[in-house]
Amino acid sequence: MLFFRNKNKPIDSLSLSSKAWKKFQKNKIALISFYFILFTVVISILGYLITPDSTPDANNQLLQMSVKPPGTKVKILLIKKIREIKKVSFMKKMLYGQESQYYYIPLYSYSFEGNNLVTETYTGSTPNNGPIKKYSLTEIIYGSGDSVVNKSTDELKVEIERTNIITKTYLLGTDQEGRDMLSRLMIGTRISLSVGFIAVIISLFIGILLGATAGYYKGKWDSFIMWLISVVWSLPTLLLVISITLALGKGFWQIFIAVGLTMWIDVARIVRGQVISLREETFIEAGKAMGFSNSRIIFRHILPNITGTITVVAADNFAAAILLEAGLSFLGIGAQPPTASWGSMINANRGFIITDSAYLVFLPGVCLMLLVLAFFLVGNGLRDALDNKSESSQLAGA
User: Fold this and answer.
1) Secondary structure (3-state) at 179
2) Mutual orientation of helices 181-217 and 28-46 as an angle, nearest 10°?
3) How far is 135 from 114, CA to CA, in rounded Å?
4) Which domains can be identified in the chain, with CATH numbers?
5) What per-residue string of b and e applies to 124-144 under the rule 16 or more CB within 10 Å gives b?
6) In whole angstroms, what is the distance from residue 54 CA to residue 224 CA?
7) Separation of alpha carbons 382 and 211, rounded Å
């Protein structure tokens, strides 16, 4: 049906989701936040395919490069490892990374002497005063000085300068262990988003199931669910998460369950209230009169009508889950080293906050703040976009 304003100008008759999306697009801050979240999702999915350090957990440690400022450039000598490194598939590299086939030696200077490469190791000091070391040309390329090759010394020198001596730029500097900060931050995005996603899925499953059944059936079951919500709600969230984590053990997967089991309360409470308001509506009574089962009425007629509310709650819970994961990792009971988690990065580098290397704490803190803020802004944008009360009043007065 078309509504008319001034009896001549038709108002667009769009579906509820289309109207909500158009309204959401008008909220520029929420839209930018939404695209920022999509950007972080792409980074987390591609993972090690796009990180400067593609080793597992972005954990390639060069102690000579400890705590170097953003923009540091250094020459790196790549020495072939003696043992054979198995090359993993595209998907495995994307998910878990690829162990490097080379040893990394930071160089301050180098020169060729016969069949050897003479190097001064980079220290970052002024003057450098690094140790002088000699490496066989065949050792650098093939991993063993005893390898039989059919190349001349000049050909080996050219190949080494072309493929085994590279210039590496640390765009965001390095941490205490000489690891690339940019790579660690990018992999930390995956940790935060995955914890948030799994935790929200768990909380939605439990919260919707308990809240919907409590609101629909009411009676003793409703009283029991409300008692359970009151008991769990009375406990401090962080304390409850810590207790569950200690019971399940420290680790990456345990944190999913611990956070998810503490976030269902808000979902259950809100879903219960929405179901109570809808269960007396005419279309629900019609469904009962037609002999529809209770489960069909709940899951096919009531829940689709409160999807918007659930979506807003899920966005807010996503942000809360990211904060909880960071807090647990900061306390040392979340993701364990060398896993790159923003919370553990802040904890490991908190001593540098009053030094010139405060960026080690500042960078993961800013990433955490921006991602959490983005989810809250998207949640607020969805709340406004799905609120049709103001639109209904405007149409009524037209």
Assistant:
1) coil
2) 110
3) 11
4) 60-170 (no CATH), 181-397 (1.10.3720.10)
5) beeeeebeeeebbbbbbbbbe
6) 51
7) 22
Q: How many CB atoms are located within 10 Å of the residue 257 CB?
A: 15
- 299 φ/ψ sector (left φ>0, alpha ψ -120 to 50, else beta): alpha
Question: Which residue is listed with tokens 């990018």?
Answer: 186
d(C-alpha 115, C-alpha 220), whole Å: 86
Report the Cα 262 to chain-centroid distance in Å.
19
User: Omega before 127 cis (within 30°)?
Assistant: yes
- What tokens appear for 31 in the block? 């839209």
Residue 79, H or E segment: strand 72-80
Determine the residue type at 322.
I
DSSP code, position 177 = T
Distance CA 269, CA 229 (A): 8
Q: How many residues does the chain have?
A: 398
Return the closest-CA partner of residue 344 out of 353, 334, 352, 354. 334
Residue whose tokens read 């987390």 = 44
Nearest residue to 262 via CA among 239, 285, 282, 278: 239
DSSP 164: I
User: Does 131 sit behind a cis peptide bond, omega within 30 degrees of 0 on the bond before it?
Assistant: no
- Spatial contact of 38 and 374, defined as CB atoms under 8 Å apart: no
pTM for the whole structure? 0.86
Centroid of chain to Cα 124: 33
Please tell me the distance from the alpha carbon of residue 48 to that of residue 40, in angstroms, as a whole number.
14
Nearest to 375 by CA among 309, 327, 316: 316
pLDDT in tens, the chain (398 residues): 344 344 444 444 456 577 888 888 899 999 999 999 999 999 999 999 999 999 999 999 999 899 999 999 999 999 999 888 889 999 999 999 999 999 999 999 999 998 899 999 998 888 888 899 999 998 888 887 555 567 888 889 999 999 999 999 999 999 999 999 999 999 999 999 998 999 899 999 999 999 999 999 988 999 999 999 998 888 887 788 888 877 877 777 778 788 888 889 989 999 999 999 888 888 888 888 888 888 888 888 888 888 888 988 999 999 999 998 898 889 888 888 888 999 999 999 998 988 888 999 999 999 999 999 999 999 999 888 887 544 443 433 44
